[in-house]
Amino acid sequence: MGGAVIFGAVGYPPQASAQDEPLARFTHQSLRWKPCADRDLDGAGAQCAEVTVPLDYDHPDGRTLTVAISRIPADPARRRGILLSNPGGPGGQGLKMMVGIRAGLSEEVRDRYDLIGMDPRGIGRSDRVTCALPLPTMIFSAGFDLLGYARDTALAGALAASCVAPDPERARRITTRNTARDMDVIRSAFGEPDLNYFGTSYGTYLGAVYTQMFPEHSGRMVFDSAIDPRRYGPGMFADMGPVNEAALDDWAGWAARHDGEYHFGATAFEVRAFVERLIRQAAAHPLVGAGYLVDEHTLPPMLLTLLPNPRLNPDLARVVRMIADGLDGLPFDMDRLKSRITAAAPLDTPAMAAILCGDKAAPRDPAWYYRNVEAARASQPVFGAMANNITACAFWPDPVEAPTEVGNAVPALILQADRDTRTAYPEGVALHRDLTGSRLITLADTRIHGTFRVGLSACVIDAVNTYLAEGILPATDTTCTSDPNYAPG
Fold this sequence. Notes:
By secondary structure, this protein is α/β, with parallel strands linked by helices. The chain contains 19 helices and 13 strands. The protein is globular and about 60 Å long.
């Protein structure tokens, strides 16, 4: 219909007065659908709308935000509700998430649900939060000495100040609990009694918080690559150290089998030694250009970005080769390097900082982090100084409300790879324990973050589609295997 505004034919509950329901003007708002002005979304037949939500739910008559959502409509004759999604991060833009996810969904599931993407508050098209200090990430490695750690500490403090100072009220309310409230406003605006949900990575924490806050409206919940709510924050990052060391070893074995192409070494031991030397070279002679820096603080996070999927093995090898050539004085294209890294981890640093730091208070003492960094170095020579490093959260104002303690019997399907590099396997097991009505599907012997992928495991795909279509969880916890042809040889 070109650029014309499309009004959704959605039934809404009877209007309530503000005295009866303080959030009535939000929960009963009409959604105005229009083209998304995005090639992928428009090509998928999606429409977009903006949902108005309170900045502060304790003061619904105060400032507001807009949350951008997309909808790939269900078959009207078979529709049973909405399936909302979140891609993780925190800081991930989710407006286009369902364009990719629907490839793994059965025709029956696609027919039954409006597939809803969302840029959560403070992200992307949803009144994006900004910081005056334009850092590409809030996660750095502490480097090799106290001087390098002091630099990271100063940078973390500066980032926090640059994010909070311009608008403290707004910055401090870009939180998971408020996003969960926004999700319930979206549910109400659609006139739905239940919210069905597909969340990945951080999206599992968001979904778990929703089940705790709104158990009566929690429908069919799928949590892929889950976070332990108790470890959310510094503990979650610390858990990433050992699993990424193991992932680097796995990649090193692959790279050794391709030594004729990349020339890192003929054994996994030699490849790992090459990478560790590279980090020390970058410390002595950093690469700088196009507003980007490659040194001992930034190189470990770059490696981590490309470890969550074995199909990225060649991409990681190319990045390592590019950096090695640059350090050896050969022609080096920083823009090309940036594009490879950011394509693999398209997160919004200001939103990530606001959400993580606004959700849960972090330790304030810089010495606490440095002790943990030093303790991790021997067993985690590449990632220990990153996984335990100080962040902006050490300098963020205290959260406006306490973090959510998750523990309920809402049914949920939890998917977890046993060699996940971002959310360690024990974290998914812990969430399963907290959600007593859940079932856990383990993807065995697989280095992957995000298990719901076409071609990865038919067992996982079938379990998700059965649950979403029929509401049937597996009778017991289940172990799945991956397709042996998924990863490169």
